[in-house]
UniProtKB/TrEMBL annotation:
Gene3D superfamilies: 3.30.230.10, GHMP kinase, C-terminal domain (3.30.70.890). This is Galactokinase. SUPFAM superfamilies: GHMP Kinase, C-terminal domain, Ribosomal protein S5 domain 2-like. It catalyses: alpha-D-galactose + ATP = alpha-D-galactose 1-phosphate + ADP + H(+). The record marks R12 as: Transition state stabilizer. The lineage of its organism: Bacteria, Bacillati, Actinomycetota, Actinomycetes, Pseudonocardiales. Its EC number is 2.7.1.6. Mg(2+) binds at S112, E144. Catalyzes the transfer of the gamma-phosphate of ATP to D-galactose to form alpha-D-galactose-1-phosphate (Gal-1-P). The gene is galK. It is an enzyme of class 2 (transferase).
Length: 366
């Protein structure tokens, strides 16, 4: 067992399956080439020493003293993973951990899940704790829920730890069963255009928790363990809850439809499902903001085959399925629409499906 190493874990884009993970439903993300890199070295003094190339200062805490609230800010995502592992009886001791985050922050691309995933892989591997990656994802989610205090589902950590290059990850968040479905757009002359709207995340934590509560309440009223267990939309519920339910039920159906099309090599045909997902997130789930809606509208008007917000919403990114030849025109259309509305300049780039978390090498000898 080596004492140190370099570990990387990617951010993600969700192709489809939004706000389904905390309803025991289905998601279909890809990992991005953008990673968080953690350089890790075991220490014998029981101290966790955390630093970041993107932040000033160093956080130091004894692992034995870790409790939620003991560490805050970016370092909480790292310390939380060590805390969650120790809570579950895994012998994780002191570590020096240096973080270098290359996943854009605040863009809804799961930089925090990437940080947790890289940490989980680093400290377990260097401590000889053999946990499979589904377990690591669960522990990383627990860190975020209980240590950081963000009530996220398990999609982002799973994407970061389980995804494969040139494949989308179909995940059943109830059974944690996975299927790696080929997702390579270039041979079809297509591209996945990402528009980072740069819209400031508004109300995101409170509204996310409120959506979770709505779903939980609706499941309770309908007498099912989770909204995943519903198939039809015949529910007798107050209007707001009925719309939340309709989003989750139809979104799970859309994931299945997109997965079928990808398996059949009919990637060109997934566009309408992406756009339907956006409309559902806008009208029924109410998690979009004007920047997201304007970007989707402009992309579709410029010829995109489908477009939708990706991630939790209330800001962040839009994705669009676009002919390679139309990438520039679509990006220009969004920039023009944003300028016309007085929004800040968006950032546009194309994404490919990259590999999940990995050991990237040894720490160079000093
Ligand atoms: C955020 C959460 F972290 C995920 O778990 C998921 O619920 C997503 O929003 C919405 O699909 O990224």
């Amino acid at each position: 067992m080596t004492r140190d190493g370099v570990f990387e874990a990617p951010g993600r884009i969700n192709l489809i399956g939004e706000h389904t993970d905390y309803n025991d439903g289905f998601v279909l993300p890809i990992a991005l080439p953008h990673v968080v890199r953690v350089t890790a070295a075991r220490r014998d003094d029981g101290v966790l020493r955390l630093s970041s190339r993107q932040a000033h200062g160093v956080a130091e805490v004894r692992v034995a003293d870790l409790v939620p609230g003991a560490v805050t800010g970016w370092a909480a995502y790292v310390a939380g993973v060590v805390w969650a592992l120790r809570e579950e009886g895994h012998p994780i001791g002191g570590f020096g951990l240096l973080v270098d985050g290359r996943v854009p922050l605040g863009a809804g691309l799961s930089s925090s899940a990437a940080l947790e995933s890289a940490t989980a892989l680093a400290v377990t591997e260097l401590s000889g704790v053999g946990l499979d990656r589904r377990e690591l994802a669960r522990i990383a989610q627990r860190a975020e829920n209980e240590f950081v205090g963000v009530p996220c589902g398990i999609m982002d950590q799973s994407a970061s730890l389980l995804a494969r290059e040139r494949h989308a990850l179909l995940l059943d968040t109830r059974s944690m069963e996975t299927e790696h479905i080929p997702f390579d757009l270039a041979p079809a002359g297509l591209a996945l255009l990402v528009v980072d709207t740069k819209a400031p995340h508004r109300l995101v934590d409170g509204e996310y928790a409120a959506r979770r509560r709505d779903c939980h309440r609706a499941a309770e009223l309908l007498g099912v363990p989770a909204l995943r267990d519903l198939t039809g939309a015949e529910q007798d519920l107050p209007d707001r809850l009925a719309r939340r339910v309709r989003h989750v039920v139809t979104e799970n159906e859309r994931v299945a439809r997109v997965a079928d099309l990808l398996r059949a090599g009919r990637v060109r045909e997934i566009g309408p499902a992406l756009t339907e997902s956006h409309v559902s997130l806008r009208e029924d789930y109410e998690v979009t903001v004007p920047e997201l809606d304007v970007a989707v509208e402009a992309l579709l008007a410029a010829g995109a085959a489908g477009a939708r917000m990706t991630g939790g919403g209330f800001g962040g990114c839009v994705i669009a399925l676009v002919a390679e030849a139309d990438v520039e025109a679509c990006a220009a259309a969004v920039r023009a629409a944003f300028a016309g509305r007085g929004f800040g300049e968006p950032e546009c780039w194309t994404a490919v499906a990259a590999a999940g978390a990995r050991r990237a090498g040894h720490v160079p000898a000093r």
